[in-house]
Amino acid sequence: MGTGGEQGRPILLLDVDGPLNPFAGMPNRRPDGFETHRLMPPSWEAAELARLEAWGRPGKRPTPLPVWLNPGHGAELAALPFDLVWATTWEAEANTFIAPLIGLPELPVIPWPVPRPTPAGKVFWKTPTVVSWAAGRAFAWVDDEITRADRDWVAENHDGPALLHRIDPRFGLSPEDFSLLAEWAAGPR
Ligand SMILES: [Mg+2]
User: Fold this and answer.
1) Which of 3, 72, 153, 187 is deepest in the core (most CB within 10 A)?
2) How much distance in Å is there from the Cα of 59 to the middle of ligand 1?
3) How far apart are the CA of 183 and the centre of ligand 1, in A?
4) Domain of life here (predicted)?
């Protein structure tokens, strides 16, 4: 049930933290080409306020969330032969807070079930939702939490081509990752 898009074009599912925001290098190993932003998405603010209250510091203002983004990534992603879709816990906040900073248009968003799914074994909690959302359509997925268990689960449960590509959250999307995605989209599936 991908929305719109060119017939036959695969989907590229985008995680924010890891591929676009190489958070694992924080605070002092920001990769070349990235810029620092301090964001206050409502979900972050609410979680911080709850945490401060739980710590007995209800009067304290929440600290903005530091995010590293590469301003070139939007154009590079848009140039790939995919329909882009957010697959991130940022959900709709990715459109409000992330997309404008890297030059992406508003994208469709995969909504996650609440509470989070608890698939068996080592399968990532996003994976069953991703597969049901793709509904058999070819997809590539970039996320820092993909493992072999997810590739196996997708092979068993997704009736179509899929590329599950783990991104190192210390570095984010690299030129090699963009090449791999372009090659996969262009190649036989
Ligand atoms: Mg992530």
Assistant:
1) 153
2) 31
3) 23
4) Bacteria
